[in-house]
Write a structure and sequence with these properties.
alpha+beta; Arc Repressor Mutant, subunit A; 2 domains; 4-stranded mixed sheet; 3-stranded antiparallel sheet; 8 helices; elongated
Amino acid sequence: MQKLIQKINKIPKAYFSFSDIRKIADMEDASLKVSLSRMVKRGELIRLLKGIYAVDAFKIGWEQFAGETYSPSYISFESALARYNILSQRPANIILATTKRSKTMKLKEITIIYRHIKPQLFWGYAREENYLIAEPEKAFLDLAYLSLNGYAKFDPEEMNFDFLDNKKIKNYLKKFDSKRLSALMKKIEP
């Protein structure tokens, strides 16, 4: 088993799947699962999710992990707004938009929250490093939109509107095609 952990440590990724380990291990799947389970119990390996492991949680890029683990998704809402210094406080969790069902993953190091949006609203993001993140205006409207039905908290008093482009907000607002969201934006006028 010592040889296996040495091979695993040479995998050039911060986290890896069972199939990644299978490629370097000379073991049958059943034996490999037992070995991995023992390594997790001894603290030599961290089980992040079923079939996904890491050696060192501090080396994991959690934004990339979140985007790859439940795809399609992009960082948005409070997480993106805090990154752009629009929100005064940083959320403890990573919050993403997805066209799949909403879900929460509680890992040892972090909680990742996926909020469902309609497929026609899955736009307005860009690639940053190894993950997707909403543009500031899109994250702002994503959060406002979900708040209309009580799925998120939208508090304009905690936001710095200096980092938002009003023209972009107006253009994006048309794409949302929501009278309720338009009415909310008229009250705020960022």
